[in-house]
Automatic annotation (TrEMBL):
SUPFAM superfamilies: Prokaryotic ribosomal protein L17. Transmembrane segments: none annotated. NCBIfam families: L17 (TIGR00059). This is Large ribosomal subunit protein bL17. Residues 159-170 have a biased composition (Acidic residues). Residues 123-187 are annotated as: Disordered. Residues 139-158, 171-187 have a biased composition (Basic and acidic residues). InterPro entries: Ribosomal_bL17, Ribosomal_bL17_CS, Ribosomal_bL17_sf. Residues 125-135 have a biased composition (Basic residues). It comes from Kribbella pratensis. Keywords: Ribonucleoprotein, Ribosomal protein. Pfam families: Ribosomal_L17.
Amino acid sequence: MPTPTKGARLGGSPAHEKLILSNLATSLFEHGAITTTAAKAKRLQPLAEQMITKAKRGDLNSRRQVMKRIKDKSVVHVLFTEIGERYADRPGGYTRITKLGPRKGDNAPMVKIELVEALADSPKAKKTAAKKAPAKKAAAAEEPKTEDKVEDEPKVEDVATEDVATEDVQDEKVQDVVAEDAKTEDK
């Protein structure tokens, strides 16, 4: 059993603290970084790291355990499909806390907690980069072929009918304005 934290709980009661941490974790996974107080960030960091580790596993039991804390299904989906895969080769340390300074109103120490970027030189990242490179070359090779085709220019008759239609609309607007002015002058 983990050692309980010392001192007062966030929010007063255990249930409120649990809700606060759940909402903070949801916001962190949804936005990638959040600004909060230092005490909340220090309590959130282990919870977020555990959830990312469960997302790396990707099995049904892990998803159900995460769903106990994070109620938003779309955030859980992002956690398991994107964030878990991003940190597949990283052994831990998925979050970073950066001090920002005191809050203006009550001088509480503020921090920014964010997800660190995945290792760029991981084997999985190299494989995806290698797959994308040939696709880009193929797309570049196909582009000059599409430029050779000449688009059909609009016919003179089509342009003339568009001009006539816009003139009719303008004439109707002018007539409406004149009619409204006449009504206001009569009153």
